[in-house]
Amino acid sequence: MQSAKNNAATEINWEALLVEAVSKPGRVLEAYHLFHSFSIGNAIWALVQCDVRKIQPGPLNTFSGWKKLNRHVKKGERAIRLVMPITCKRKEENKDGEEEESNYTRFVIRPNWFVLSQTEGEEVAAEVEIPEWNAERALAELNINRVSYESMNGNAQGYAEPGRKIAISPIAALPYKTTFHEMAHVVLGHTEEGGLSDDELTPRSLMEAEAESVAMLCCESLGLPGAEFSRAYIQNWLNGSAIPEKSAQKIFSAAHKILKAGQENEKSGNEQAA
Ligand SMILES: [Zn+2]
After folding, report:
1. Residue pLDDT, tens place only, 169-182
2. CB 69 within 8 A of CB 122
3. How close is the Cα of 170 to the center of ligand 1, in Å?
4. Are residues 113 and 139 in the same domain?
5. Distance CA 217, CA 256 (A)
6. What is the rounded CA–CA span in Å between residue 176 and residue 181?
């Protein structure tokens, strides 16, 4: 039987993490710098856990990971919890009525990590470098095509179209922010429902709030200009409505995909997706 306790979807409050990111400028940047090899959702969650428990945030590793570095977890320290993807198998009947096994990914919470300050032992090597992020690499990795901008609307900054296409106005005020925003529309699956044009007249739909939230997480993680504009937009939006939990989860997942796709040094092993 599946244990509800291990079901990430019911235990993490993604909406609260998003509000944390929106309401505290600098929070996302700090989380990304500290925990950049983890997903941005996990990074912010780890930072929040450190804060609540008054632990000095720093490099994260597992119990055995610290052991390999000749350090050990201090007595009485409680582990940091993060979301991990696990691959499960399920049996389904195919169209011929035969049973077939397929894989699917489920997210679970695991209390497996400790920050440096919860451990003692041998000095650890200086900090690992934060990988460079490259827009062209991210677009290629996510199979998104940048097409030339052909809008007659003078206010539009960019748009996303079916067929995983995005176009950014050559005179976009904040090209990075607009690029993240349009990539988000594609990654979030919005373009499958038709083209989107972004200008001041676009209704403040949930899709826009989702795409703008992804843009904020990406801009701030990478220290690129535009995060403050996204933040203001989302704060304004949150005045009238709430971001549903499902949307918040999708936002963190999309931001993680975009950030990871553009990282120069690909990581593996201890990666967390959420
Ligand atoms: Zn949009």
Report:
1. 999 999 999 999 99
2. yes
3. 17
4. no
5. 9
6. 8
